[in-house]
């Protein structure tokens, strides 16, 4: 939603087309005429929209007890609302499309637009490189904050941690060493390192 707001801010009326309900779709289609990556994205999103529309029509025309909807990705209303941006992100082309818009901003945007700004425009395109590099194959569950890691992961963590410990006693937990601060305010760095190791070891 935030990316969509940034991309649509200061957009010229003729760039999105008059009376278009989905401005982001209209913009991407217009970009697709001169940018092949955007053109391919448009085809994919339109196919997905067709599937969603067919599923809705089939669901409305069939009685409740025998209703069968074609298998679709589990899309929330919010996801469907931002389907174009979301698909561009999953297909790893969102950063490239935004970069193209920044480079050709005078064609699509008014002077006060975010993507017309010589600093903010390129920064937005650069910020999207990270999210576009991720693989969105498995989403976190609602209880992911409370579930414990698997045994394999805990063993792997322990091995990684053990490799950083001292060689003389890798399994021995380092003693917690607390040193009072001197009046001058100086303090040796070693106790803080020991405390950090202790906490890490305790966590493992």
Describe the structure.
57% of the residues lie in helices and 0% in strands. It has 204 residues and is mainly α. It has a domain at 1-60 and 71-140: Methane Monooxygenase Hydroxylase, Chain G, domain 1 (Up-down Bundle). Helix 3 (23-32) crosses helix 4. 14% of the residues are buried. Mean pLDDT is 77; it is low at 64-70. Residues 180-204 are annotated as: Disordered. Keywords: Coiled coil. InterPro entries: Run_dom, Run_dom_sf.
Cα(first) to Cα(last) distance is: 38 Å
Instruction: Kindly identify the CATH topology of the domain at 1-60 and 71-140.
Output: Methane Monooxygenase Hydroxylase, Chain G, domain 1
- CATH second-level architecture of the domain at 1-60 and 71-140: Up-down Bundle
CATH class of the domain at 1-60 and 71-140: Mainly Alpha
Q: Strand-residue fraction? A: under 5%
Q: What low-confidence regions span 5 or more consecutive residues with pLDDT below 50?
A: 64-70
């Amino acid at each position: 939603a935030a990316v969509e707001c940034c991309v649509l801010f200061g957009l010229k009326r003729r760039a999105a087309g008059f009376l278009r309900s989905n401005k982001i779709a209209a913009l991407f289609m217009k970009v697709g005429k001169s940018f092949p990556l955007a053109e391919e994205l448009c085809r994919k999103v339109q196919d997905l929209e067709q599937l969603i529309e067919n599923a809705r029509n089939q669901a409305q025309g069939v009685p409740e007890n025998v209703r069968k909807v074609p298998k679709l990705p589990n899309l929330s209303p919010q996801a469907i609302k931002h389907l174009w941006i979301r698909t561009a992100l999953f297909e790893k082309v969102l950063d490239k499309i935004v970069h193209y818009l920044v480079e050709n901003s005078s064609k699509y945007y008014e002077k006060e637009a975010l993507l017309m700004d010589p600093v903010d425009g390129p920064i937005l395109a650069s910020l999207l490189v990270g999210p576009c590099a991720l693989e969105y194959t498995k989403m976190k569950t609602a209880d992911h904050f409370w579930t414990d890691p698997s045994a394999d992961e805990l063993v792997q963590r322990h091995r990684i941690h053990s490799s950083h410990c001292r060689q003389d006693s890798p399994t021995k937990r380092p003693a917690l060493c607390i040193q009072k601060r001197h009046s001058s305010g100086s303090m040796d760095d070693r106790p803080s390192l020991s405390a950090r190791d202790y906490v890490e070891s305790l966590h493992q």
